[in-house]
Every structure is written in C-alpha cells, then in structure tokens.
Design brief:
The complex is a heterodimer of chains A (about 300) and B (about 425). Chain A is an all-alpha fold. Helices cover about 75% and strands about 0% of the residues of chain A. Chain A has one domain (about 60-295): MetI-like fold, CATH 1.10.3720. Chain A has helices at about 1-35, 55-60, 65-100, 105-120, 120-130, 140-145, 160-185, 190-195, 200-215, 215-230, 235-240, 250-260, 265-295, and strands at about 35-40, 50. The radius of gyration of chain B is 25 Å and the shape is globular. The chains are: A mainly alpha (about 300), B alpha/beta (about 425).
Chain lengths: ~300, ~425
C-alpha cells in the first residue's frame, strides 16, 4: 500500500519536479559552475577554463572590478533596506485606513492604491523622470511654492538612489497594502470587542492585537519586498543608467553590464552567485528572527 | 477531363515553374540601429528604393536606445536570427571582431572602402588590417557657446586658451539665475570622456599611447586640474550635467534653455539643438577646443560609426547585407552624387565620412554651426580603439564624475584613472 502510494506520488510529482529541475535548478547550477570559470558569454561553454576562486578574488579585490562590484552591492543593500523600511509601515497604515468598513469610498481608495502596481514600469519611468526634472519638474515647482529651493533628485549622487527608492515605494505600496488587508481580515473582530470592553484604546489594540497577529503577514511581505527590491533593474536602466558617479548602479544592472556588454561571463556569474547568497542569508536571518520571536 | 489528367497537368505546370520560383526566392535582412523614428523612416525609404532594383531582398529596420545597442548586439548577434546588419561605434569593433560576432568585409567591398574613405576612418573600421565595416559617420568635438549669453556677459570672442575658458566661464556664471558658465556631462560614458579627452589632446596629451594608458602625464594632470578648478569656482555645476539613456536630459535642457554658456559636444547634436531651441538655434556658435598650457594648437577627439554584418547570419543573408550596404553608401543611391546614407546622416547634422559625400554636401557642411566642426576635423585625434576600450571608457567616466561631484581631488582622480586603465587594458589584451 505504502509502496503503491509512493509510486503514485512520484509519478504525479515527476512533471513538476522535471520542469523545476530544467528551468530553475539547472540554470542555477550552471551559474555556480560558470562563476569558477574564465568564460566569455560569446563563446560556447566548452571554451570556459577553470580559474578556481579567481573571479571571487577579483570582485572583492582592489581593482576597478572589485570597487564597482562592492559599490553596486552596497547600493543594492541601501535600496533594499530603504524600500522595505518605507513600504511595510506604509502598507499597514494604508491597510488600516482602507480596511475600515464604515469609511466612505474605501473600495475606490483600495483600487487607486493597487492601480499603481499595474502601471508598466516604462510608463512609471517616463513620468517620474519628468517629475524629477530639476528645471521644469513639478516636484521642484511644488517645493518652490512652500519656499523650498530646487532639489537635484536624480542629478546628485546623494539623492539619486533615494529618488529611485521613492519611485519603487510609490509603485509597490498598493500591492503590499492588499497583503496587509488580507492579514487584517484574519484577525477575529471578537478580540477587538473584548479589548474594548477591557478598556484598551485604539493604540493599545494596535500594539497588542493587530501587530502580533500580523507578524506572519509582515514576514511574507518583507520577504517579497526584499526579493523585489534586490531584483530592481528597469528604473535604473530606463532613467539613470547607474549614474551619477555609480550612485544608482545596483547589482542586477552591473551584472548586465559586466556579463553581457563586456561579455565577461565568469565575472558576471560570480557576481550573480554573490547576489543569490546574500539574498538567501538575509531571508534566512529574517525567518530565524521571526521564529525566535514566536517561540518567546 | 479526368482527375488523373488534371493531376498530371498540375504537376507539369508546377515543375515548369520551379526554376522561376527558385530565382525569386526572397532574402529578408534586418538592420539594427539606435536612430530616432524620423531617421529610421529615412532609412526605410532608402531600403524601399533599393528594393525597386532588388525585389528579392527586403530590409526591415529596428531601433533601440543607444544605451541598449551594444547589449542587443551582443545578446542577439550571436545567432543566425539576430540582426543581419548593425550600426556600431568604432570603440566596440575590436571586441566584437575578437568574439567573431561580425564578419570581415568581402574583397570587393573592402577594396571600394579603402579607395573611397580617408585612411584614418578605414583604420578605425579595421582590426589587424582586416576591414569589418563600412564607415558612415564621423563625429568630432568642438566648443559650442551661446552668443546671446556671451554678449550679455560682455565677452567678445570664444575662449582660445584654458585661461580664457576659465575667465569666460566665471563671467557667464550667474547662480541666482541658475546659469552655469561651462557645462559638463555625466551618467553617459562618451559624454563624460570625449570632452575631457578633447581638452587633453588640446593640451598636448593622449589617453592611450602605444596601447598603454597615458593618464599619468603632466598634460593629463593639468586637464584633471582644469576640471577641479571649474567645479570649485562654481562655473560648472554637476547637477545640471546629467544625461539619460537616450543621451538627452538635463545637460541638453540646460544648454537649449540658455542656462549653460559653453559646452564641449559633438556635431551630431545639431538636430537636438534645433528641435529644442527653434529660432534661438541661431544663437549657438562653434569654436575650436581651447588650447591648454602644454598644447600647441587646438585639437579634439573624433570617432566614427560603421555598419557591420552578423558573422552568424546565413551566407545568402550576409551576401545580401553587404550588397545593400555597398549600395546605401555609394554615390548612386543618394541625391546629387551623394550616398543615401550621407543624406540620412546630414538630416541629423552628422558629418559623413566618405570623401565624395563631403564634396557632395559641401554647401550644407558650410553652415555656421557645422563649418566649425569641419574646420577642426583635420587636427582631430581618433579616440583610441583598443580591446577593453569600452570598459576603460566607463572606468574613466566614474573617475571624472567623482571629480565633478568633489568626491576626489584632481591628483587622486589622475592616480585612480591611470591605475584602473592600466589594469583594464592589460587584462583585455590577454
């Protein structure tokens, strides 16, 4: 009986496992293998030559390759950190506002918030590059009305990356608000009624009921927000090209430049492996942190 | 008539038509470029003209932004289904040829090009003596300045030396009005590096000498120092210098709106200036690059573009592509003895490089804006075309941008630029 069950399960799982193996695991293993090779992306794999840890030494070394990679890794970390720090609280705040059933126009507000997520990035990039225009941009004109001088936005290495983060937050917050609303609907209303009877005010209800019971939703949102942010590519390629002074040169854009434009496939693969490892470490650390909190 | 007889007649008719259909077999080739939709329309019109005498060949044109051109060529050019023809920047040729992505020109085409183009341009389209592309445009850098702003600032003539350049930049700067004297460019490798290189060669220096970087020279040191002086004095504002993926953006907006007094740019941006300025385009004039303290006379940087053929395309496609390119660049395809390619280039204000095209367009090349560029062409130095050139250019871009934003001193910028360039070129040469 058990053997028949195992055979049947194996047969049913085989198509999915085969597809995942071919389209997910194989490219990942290939990238890891290439990261130890000196290989031009314009030549067959057979022409790759083993260089051991040479590519990893290069990308962490003192030359321009290492300097650019480390700067891109740092830019990606800053972009990801800022995006998550801004998106999660905003999504909960919007979620709480939109979730109130007795607020008129709640559904319309929910639709508006989610609609930003549906706008193609090319349109977002076109609009935001004009919004940020130092001379004729509406943002600077609005700031001028309240007495604040023109800001350089994308034209300064100090503000360019943050400006791209704002664009990302604007586009993604609607999606995470929907996730937050889904989490809020899972909290039984009776808990709030009991808390109200016990004299808890809104702030205490939020702190002791909403936040703890939203922990799993927040963990899921954080993981998705991190993965989305680490993969940022389009706004950089469409608006800033990694500049000025490499301040918006994030890892995905840098890997494209090294691996495709310069055809340095081995170096590009080593960078991709480091990006993947960083992502795994961060996500595992996040899960470990939340699990520890749960057991406490 | 019975079914059997009908079938036999149909078979006989089919067999009789076979040779004719064989001759009429069509060849479809594609042309990848970074040109604007208006220019693409001109190229498509030329392709239609070609099809009148070559009905078996159809040419489709595809355009991508300049920032994506090399990536598209590298990612799609490696297969037979990639673009058959590509317009490329000469700096990319050594590595594309090394990676066997572009095909050498057939003997007949190579012979024609060697006889009809200046030797320097032919050399930029060749690797190890083998011609890979048909050159079309040549671009050269010069100083563009706004005559109205000069008059307002009481400056009678464009600067001839670096001291005059700094003095004019100072007089043209009006921070309260958001106006800078001298415009730099950032976030675009060629836009950053070419103006710097033009000032460097006008100061008697070189970027690369005998295949090795020469940024540790005294002339280069003075050029880095000039940048630092312009930035520190406030005559050049890096936040007004940003370029976008289409090589437009704030640096262009600021010049066309009269917020930048002077800038070093190539002739090809004539059409962008005309579009942005309208009637005020007549305020813009061209002058040679100011000479540095170690220079003898004005020099600038030139570079060329060419059309290459995909080495992985089928033999028939390659043959059709070379035939189309030979026609497109020949004096019989355009007006009044000019090539159709040169007519397309001139519509954008770009200088053609074929000798007969320069002669055919001499009236238009004598315009107030372009004549300034034509006059500096003879003393222009070609941008070094070496393996690793693109990476070298991007690395120097980073260093110059760091200098623009005050992140490094001129001295440190020079040291970093030389160290990075030495490592990049040495690795690429292996």
């Amino acid at each position: 009986m058990t053997k028949a069950f195992q055979t049947s399960a194996g047969i049913m799982l085989a198509p999915a496992v085969t597809l995942i193996g071919i389209f997910v695991l194989l490219p990942m293993l290939l990238t890891i293998w290439l990261s130890f090779q000196d290989w031009s992306t314009q030549t067959p794999f057979s022409e790759a030559s083993f260089v051991g840890l040479g590519n990893f030494r290069e990308i962490f070394g003192p030359t321009s390759i290492g300097r650019d990679f480390k700067a891109a890794l740092l830019n990606t970390a800053i972009y990801t950190g800022l995006s998550v720090i801004l998106i999660l609280p905003l999504s909960i705040a919007f979620g709480l506002m939109v979730y109130q059933r007795d607020v008129a126009g709640g559904t319309a507000l929910r639709t508006v918030l989610f609609s930003t997520y549906m706008v193609p990035m090319i349109a977002v990039a076109l609009v935001w590059s004009k919004l940020y225009s130092p001379s004729e941009g509406p943002l600077n004109q609005m700031l001028g009305l309240i007495g604040i001088g023109p800001q350089p936005w994308l034209s300064s290495p100090r503000s360019a990356l943050v400006s791209i983060v704002f664009l990302n937050v604007w586009q993604q917050v609607g999606y995470f608000t929907v996730l937050a609303i889904a989490g809020l609907t899972q909290i039984p209303g009776s808990l709030y009624e009991a808390a109200t009877l016990d004299g808890a005010n809104r702030r205490e209800q939020f702190r002791y009921i909403t936040l703890p019971l939203m922990r799993r939703t927040l963990l899921f949102s954080a993981v998705i927000a991190i993965i989305n942010a680490v993969q940022v590519f389009e706004p950089v390629a469409l608006i800033t090209q990694g500049g000025p002074v490499g301040s918006t040169n994030v890892l995905t854009y840098h890997i494209r430049r090294v691996g495709i434009e310069r055809a340095q496939g081995g170096l590009g693969s080593a960078m991709a492996v480091m990006l993947m490892l960083s992502l795994i470490v961060v996500v595992c650390a996040l899960f470990a942190f939340v699990n520890r909190k749960d057991s406490e | 008539m019975s079914v059997a007889w009908t079938s036999k007649l149909a078979l006989a008719a089919g067999l009789a038509m076979l040779p004719a259909t064989g001759w009429a077999q069509s060849v479809k080739i594609s042309y990848l470029t970074h040109w604007s939709p208006e220019t693409v329309a001109l190229l498509e019109a030329a392709a239609k003209d070609y099809a009148k005498t070559n009905p078996d060949v159809s040419v489709t044109v595809r355009a991508v932004p300049f920032g994506d051109l090399l990536t598209t060529l590298r990612s799609q050019g490696g297969g037979a289904d990639g673009p058959t023809i590509g317009g490329i920047y000469d700096l990319w040729l050594p590595e594309l040829a090394h990676d066997k992505l572009v095909a050498p020109a057939p003997e007949a085409v190579a012979g024609e090009v060697k006889g009809a183009w200046p030797a320097g341009v032919v050399s930029a389209a060749s690797v190890e003596g083998k011609l890979y592309g048909i050159p079309n445009e040549i671009d050269v850098y010069a100083l563009n300045y706004n005559k109205a702003l000069f008059e307002k600032a009481g400056i009678a003539a464009p600067p001839k030396t670096w001291d005059e350049l700094k003095d004019a930049a100072r007089k043209l700067t009006d921070k309260a009005a958001g106006q800078q004297g001298f415009g730099m460019i950032n976030s675009w490798a060629a836009g950053v590096v070419h103006p710097f290189a033009s000032l460097l060669v006008s100061n008697g220096g070189e970027l690369v000498k005998d295949g090795k970087p020469a940024l540790d020279s005294a002339q280069a040191g003075q050029t880095f120092q000039l940048y630092e002086d312009l930035i520190k004095s406030g005559a050049s504002d890096p936040s007004m210098a940003t370029a976008d993926a289409n090589t437009t953006g704030p640096f262009l907006d600021n010049f066309v709106s009269g917020k930048t007094g002077m800038i070093i740019m190539a002739n090809w941006w004539e059409s962008a200036l005309k579009t942005g300025m309208g009637d005020k385009f007549s305020n813009i004039a061209t002058a040679p690059i100011p000479v540095g303290p170690s220079g003898d006379k004005p020099h600038s940087i030139s570079y060329s573009w060419m059309t290459v053929v995909n080495a992985k395309a089928s033999e028939a496609d390659q043959k059709a592509a070379w035939d189309f390119l030979a026609w497109l660049n020949s004096p019989k395809s355009g007006k009044n003895g000019a090539s159709a390619m040169s007519d397309i280039l001139m519509s954008m204000g770009i200088l053609p490089s074929r000798t007969s095209d320069i002669e055919a367009h001499k009236d238009k090349l004598g315009s107030a804006f372009l004549s300034g560029y034509v006059s500096v062409l003879a003393d222009a130095r070609p941008f070094p075309v070496v393996r690793g050139g693109q990476e070298f250019s991007e690395s120097l871009q980073q260093t110059l941008e760091a200098l623009q934003y005050g992140q490094v001193s001129a001295k440190d910028a020079q040291t970093n630029a030389q160290t990075d360039a030495a490592s990049i070129l040495e690795r690429a040469a292996k």
